[in-house]
Fold each of these.
Amino acid sequence: MSTRETRPGSTGGADTPGPLHGGPDDDYSPEQLGTMSREELDRLGARYDGVEILHVDSGPEPGSRLEGRAIRQVGLVFGLAGVFALAFVVVYAGSGWFLPDWHWEISESGWSALFTPLLGLLMGLSLLMVGLGLVLFTKKLLPHETAVQDKHDGSHFDRVTSGATLVGGWHNSGLARRKLITRSLGLMGGGVGLMLLMPLGGMIKNPNKGDPLGSTNWDEGVRLVRNDGSPIRPGDQEPGSLETVFPAVAGGNIQADAATMLIRLRPEQVQEAQPREGQGDFGYGDYVAYSKICTHAGCPVSLYEQETSRILCPCHQSQFDVTQGAKPVFGPATRSLPQLPITVDDEGFFVARSDYIEAVGPTYWNRERI
Ligand code: FES
């Protein structure tokens, strides 16, 4: 409950200090202020502040059943926030230790597929409980007061009485005597603090294996297949046509970074072709295969205009010339589309000769890998 009195001269109580004269620093010396209790300072400050209290709801009676029930509810919610946060810490830190190891891959399944959603769920539940607990605590246990007051002028008097008002806020919260809530707050604070620090562990222990952003699932001997999984032979496509292909591995057609354009050049395009240096044998006959991921910002490119030999990216209109090793000839992209080295296997189907020799995707990679 608020202990504040209203403006001096209006409704000051019997226990409030006497009439006010000049400024507060004239009426009260630092020594006098130093001898007053917190309640006295709070009341005195209110009088000088010109506080007008419009409405007071003091909250549940201390020691009442209503208060006890509210304390248990708030303590339970704060405690749950701490438990969910600690569960987050256990899952994050325990992976690869006493829980299964986790690493990122596109076709992830089992624990790897569960790991990130589980962390998100636990963090979300913890933060939800923090918010819910604060709302419950404020609504059910804190006194509510509606008051208006004048601005402070920043004098010593104001600093001392404002400090007393702040301390009074802590006192009125009842946290000092509501042990269940302070304990659950401790659990919540510790758990949430640890939970927020945990992701920094990724800077120490990188959970990714190998180089997942710099490599794809293409490898020597891996067949090029259509979206329905069917393999492709030379001669399946008309000259001048394009087919999107994927590696023939589990989940290959959902591996966005491996999506590749298999293009059959027309005879005149073969004549004009100028492959990139060292990549003259990356094609097979009149076929070439390029990454479908735009080197500007990663959009899928596949608008192929065979008359001009250009592949267009619909996002920002970059254009790549397939007869020039998919060099960018227009738009914001500055790096050629990586070319996949291809050949055919014993059964006559197209296969990769290796993974891409450079990272696919945005030009960001230029800075470190090319
Ligand atoms: S993503 Fe292709 S041009 Fe921007």
Note: The longest strand covers residues 52-57.
Amino acid sequence: MTAEATKRPLEPDTIYNEDCLETMSRMPDCSVDLVVTSPPYDGMKSYNGYSFDFENVARELFRIIKEGGVVVWVVGDETRAGDETGTSFRQALYFKEIGFRLFDTMIWHKPNSFNFGSNDCYRQSFEYMFVLTKGKIATRNLIKDVPAKMAGRTVKGARRHVNGSRDTDVPDFVVPQYKRRDNVWDIMVAQERGTGKHPAVFPESLAADHILSWSNPGELVYDPFMGSGTVAKAAKALGRRFIGSEISAEYCRIADERLSKE
Ligand SMILES: C[S@@+](CC[C@H](N)C(=O)[O-])C[C@H]1O[C@@H](n2cnc3c(N)ncnc32)[C@H](O)[C@@H]1O
């Protein structure tokens, strides 16, 4: 990367074929609304041999994210000789150490996951989705798509206290048809169309549902590990702007191709 290249101003709706630290070095402080990403972790998969400097990436993410903005960090652990690495926990705690709040530890449950792990333990079927915020969260468009058992029924207001008493001034209300989701999301793993040989593609709905939850139309979404372009594709479809970094030229080509078909 030349000095000239590092001075290039960033264009929205672009994926940069470079190390994400280089892209972020050109981003102003507090300029990104939402980050949705999955870094390479442990030795689980080979991404054409590329790696990253976790602590510097975490600090740069804290610098570029707006006050109230969110970073969704999707990660899991490798098991080596009967011992999980604990990388995910270490990373979550490091994010807290540098100033992020751990707003929620969500789980991506993969009902159809392929068993990469050991046969000695239960089948490995989830990844963490750490939802980190810089200060008080600015946007929470919680998805309400779980049918409520009591839908349509009028129920007594029920603000209850720990000592068992209830407030009497809460009005009755009609239970809406849908309630908010749990923080465990069941999302099938599927090879999304047009993602070629990329080994770890997000399901499009995972990217889309986080973008809907933690950002508004017109806002800027960044993925420092863009891979085959799933976050960019979902951001574009949902009327957000995006920036991405992807170190592999091969994966950038896959991402550009997917986006051109949008
Ligand atoms: C888990 S994959 C992301 C997959 C992506 N969510 C998708 O749906 O295709 C991680 C990606 O990070 C890329 N990568 C690794 N080190 C990087 C770095 N330092 N900067 C930018 N990208 C990097 C890898 O090439 C790989 O494509």
Note: The pocket of S-adenosylmethionine is lined by residues 19-20, 38, 40, 47, 50-52, 198, 200-202, 224-225, 227-228, 230, 245-248, 251 (CB under 6 Å).
